[in-house]
UniProtKB/TrEMBL annotation:
<dbReference type="InterPro" id="IPR012485">
    <property type="entry name" value="CENP-I"/>
</dbReference>
<protein>
    <recommendedName>
        <fullName>Centromere protein I</fullName>
    </recommendedName>
</protein>
<dbReference type="Pfam" id="PF07778">
    <property type="entry name" value="CENP-I"/>
</dbReference>
<comment type="similarity">
    <text>Belongs to the CENP-I/CTF3 family.</text>
</comment>
<keyword id="KW-0539">Nucleus</keyword>
<keyword id="KW-0137">Centromere</keyword>
<keyword id="KW-0158">Chromosome</keyword>
Amino acid sequence: MSLSPPPGDRLDQLLDDLETASKIPAKRRQTSIKPTVEKTTSLLYDRGALPDDLIRLVDLLTQHNHLDQASLSAITRNLYPLGKVSDEVLLRIVGALGHGHLKPSFPLQSLFLKWLVMVYHLLQNPTILSQTYAVLFNLLDSAAIRPQLCHLLALITRRKHVRPFRIQTILALSRQTGGDPNLTGLLRVFKNYYPEIIVGDITKGRAAAFKHPDVQWRERLNEIQQQHFDRHEDDGTRNGFAVSHALGRRLKGARALVPNVHTLHAHETSVTLEEFDSAEGFVNSLEKIEMPSQLVAVLADPLLQKFLLLRPSQEASQRISNWLMACVGDVTSGDTDPSFLLDMVEVIRDYVLSIKELSPVLMEFFQSFLQTWNGLDKRDIVLETLSYLPLLDFTELSPLFTLLQSKLLNNTPQSQLALLTFYTLLLNNWTTRLLSRPTSSLPSQPVTSIPSLLTHVNPLCLTLSQSSPSISTSLAILDFYTATGRIYSSPILLLHIPIAIPPPLLVYNLAFSPSLTVLSRLCSILTVYKIAWETVITKKTSPQQQQRKPSQEEWSQINIFNGFLMDICNNLWRGRAFALAPTSDSGSPDANARGCRIPKSLVPVLDSYLRDLDDDLKLETVFGLSYNPVLCLQSIKFVRGLEEKEMKKGGLLVRHAGPVTQQSLVRLAGRGGVRLSWQEYRAGVLGWLEGEEVGQGGLPGLMYNTMKNLMGTRRGTEGGGGSSFSSLA
């Protein structure tokens, strides 16, 4: 059950009370209005005012009523708008300025003008304020509001507003007031638009700097706006077509140096990004938008990102680069704390995630940043950002990879895993980018960088498999090669990207993993590789079929690939573990066997060790479906399932004790057990492995694509009695 706030804490109810009290003279009120005013100002300070509430508050402040000046001033000082300031609010405040019995007092008017200066960036339509320029200018003779009025006029003055009669008016007022600094400051703004005008020595006098009237008020406004933004972002109601004025809150330590989007010196014919709150207005005015003064705000402002994407500019890129390199220089010289750069990297990460690529400007930044980085602070953020490096020639990327590895690697498996994860992300991002491009553009892409990257990462994977032989490490290695399989499983990409295989020793290390998941995923990857090789080397069947010729380097890898593919099939399926290719018969199915590259003299030693343990154990079959440590449980589960079905029928006399062999199945059938041939058993285990209960289809997929007697069938009895191996020619 949710709790509703007490009546006195709702702003609309407080406004009802204030509006009622404003119509009654103070002496005739039965209760004091002061507690209501205090609650209202407190609520405004905490939450701000929604547009409808803001209109009611402005009406209360600008219309003649019986509220005291202290209450009206307190409300004005806490008038924090939650959204844009509407034209209605703006015109009502401008209409309340000036002389008159029904007008608010001058101290209150000065607060109104000060408020307009502080919310200028939130005006829904700043051109409305420009249209009231004549009304505001004619109020300069009111000394009580002149400082705030000059500040507002300085903000909204454009070239079209500078006229000779206005210059003469300011000169006359300046002489009457003895050189008012505020008038002098406004006159300097006029002179900036027309430097050739002659105004004498007045502009040389002391002038107002027109600084922000209340920095703490602005900070509090930013906090309230950010809270409101966060709520709308959670609700999914923000459309991304408005600049963010709470950038500083996100940057933490970098807050003081990274600016918000703000446009200075805009012309009367141009528009600024701060004016937009819809996609329609942004698109219609795209060519008229003035470049913001601080373009580095693109790192965190979605609207500025869209703008620079649609209107790219070399000058803009150079300005952003200069700003970033200046930050690196400040850290290097010791003028800025190093944590600032880490905060910057976090903001850059958010920016890169939105545009999905690391621009040349940011690559230059990271080249300098990595030289100061210790390899540990915010490592995940740094690597995630760098994973969006563009696909360039590998010689261009190699220096950055070398620098990154020198900073990241510290002789621990953790640092090696972090580096491998980075390369996996990078390869996935490159693949996504290539698949999203038109097919006709692929020949112009530096796609040879992909096999170069695989060759570069292979030693890292092999080192990890030996230094940290855990299941989690093996899965991380397989993640990388799954990413390569995604490339080679695409016929379009395969036409342009050469194939690079993993090191044989790495394949053997993974094949003997104590995890069924690792073995299954390895088999899935090898299946993808085999299909890719067959696609490349198979002759075209029609003139329309696209095909490329394998390179000499690819041909040299085929025998290596056939070797470890043959060894895995010998171990898991053919009952010939660690078999070597015969020296006399080059046409034998075992011609590619490499015996998992263990010394030939070690094979009889291992076989003797197994026979000492159990006379029934043989080295040739100990890694098959029935005895393999990661497959034996699933194999016997398949048999148990068949036995359960027979028991329900009442025709089962004895159960298999396991492990299953060709001879044990014959004996079992003769004693009243399940009648199952050796071929049916093996095919059934493959079906069980790829079924929903186990969900490990890697091994079955490899066997169906490699063993000739299984090709063309998914479940059922094997054809023939042999186990002929399909190698790559």
